[in-house]
Amino acid sequence: MSTPAPIAEMRRIVGDQFHHWAWLYWLDMFACIAVGYTAASFYLAAPWFSARQIICLAIAALALFRVGSFIHEIAHLRQGKMRAFQVAWNVLVGIPLLMPSFFYTNHIDHHKTDHYGTEHDGEYVPLGTSAWHHIVLFMAQALVMPLYVFVRFLLSPITFLTPGLRQWTLEHCSSFVMNFHHRLNVPKSAPRKLWAAVELACSARAWAMLLVIVAGLYPWTRLFQLYLLSVSILSLNYNRNLVAHHYRNRGGTMSHLDQLIDSVNITGGWLTELFFPLGLRYHALHHLFPALPYHELPSAHRKLLGELPPDSPYRVTVFPTYWSVLRELIGDTLRATRRGKGHGGGQMAATS
């Protein structure tokens, strides 16, 4: 099938912006690690409910949310591209935070035209056509996911007992998704030995967090502090995902152009950038051209708005603030509730 004319024109406009600045990835990652881990250490040492504890928790959550969001960039890197960065990110971020990059292998399905918005899309649930309380259930998942992930990695060694159990675990319990019906299609070319090594490193990290408490090196409240930090980071991500799309599709396949119109760009200001790091506020643009690196999204967005005609479908994706998108989503859910068409959109979990 040929590329639709509107998308072909958009591609022409941003065609020279697909180059990755590797040095920026490294600088951004190390800066976030320095800020995030330093703030986290002060948070863990601060007196309970003190201003220092609250401020350091907020700083740590925002910095670690940003550096954790590189899992999304890694998912879109071509095989073998920036390999050193991928390894460093997993060692310095993915394993310590129990979010290895191979747990986001499923993300590519979210961009396939025959998967987006269907049961095969792990990152889509029809919130916009479901009852309003599913938004509450969606956000509440941030309270449960840290416990689920922690236990998942504590049990990792058991998953290697039989090949069948390992396969089932990879397909059902090794993806960050918001649609629990999704099953990871593990390709034959998957680097299973590498995945196993990274997963066992995460398992060692999880067990170490538990054993230092059992050994009396830290009080049990340390685990609760780490839980609060995890919830804070995940809440930021859930909040971001809540307005990434309109979530109006009820399972049918959608064209590339339909994906674009169902997705959202938020212009906003510096606060929007703080809460939507690495260009995540340009989510419609990302679905238009997934290979665009995060540092090119702002300028590509400006170029598109500057050159596209007034009736371009790209312009309907643009919203001025987070609140304007949220109001539209809530309006959709209230209308669905009044029509009595709200349905089971509660099978959700975390996504990056």
What does this protein structure show overall?
This protein is mainly alpha-helical and 352 residues long. It has 14 helices and two strands, in the order H-H-H-H-H-H-H-H-H-H-E-H-H-H-E-H. The chain has a two-stranded parallel ribbon with strand order 1-2. The chain starts with a helix and ends in a 14-residue tail after the last helix. 38% of the residues are buried.
Largest sheet: 2 strands, parallel
Roughly how many Å is the radius of gyration? 20 Å
Q: In DSSP terms, counting alpha (H) and pi (I) runs of 4 or more, how many helices?
A: 14
* Number of strand segments: 2
Low-confidence stretches: 342-352
Shape: globular
Structural class: mainly alpha
Q: Helix share of residues?
A: 55-70%
- How do the strands line up in the largest sheet? 1-2
Oligomer state of the chains in this structure: single chain
What is the terminal separation in angstroms?
Answer: 30 Å
Strand portion, in percent?
A: under 5%
**Average pLDDT taken over every residue:** 92
N to C succession of SSEs: HHHHHHHHHHEHHHEH
SSE arrangement:
Layout: H1 5-14, H2 22-45, H3 51-68, H4 70-75, H5 83-94, H6 133-154, H7 163-173, H8 192-214, H9 221-242, H10 256-261, E1 265-266, H11 270-275, H12 283-288, H13 297-307, E2 318-319, H14 322-338
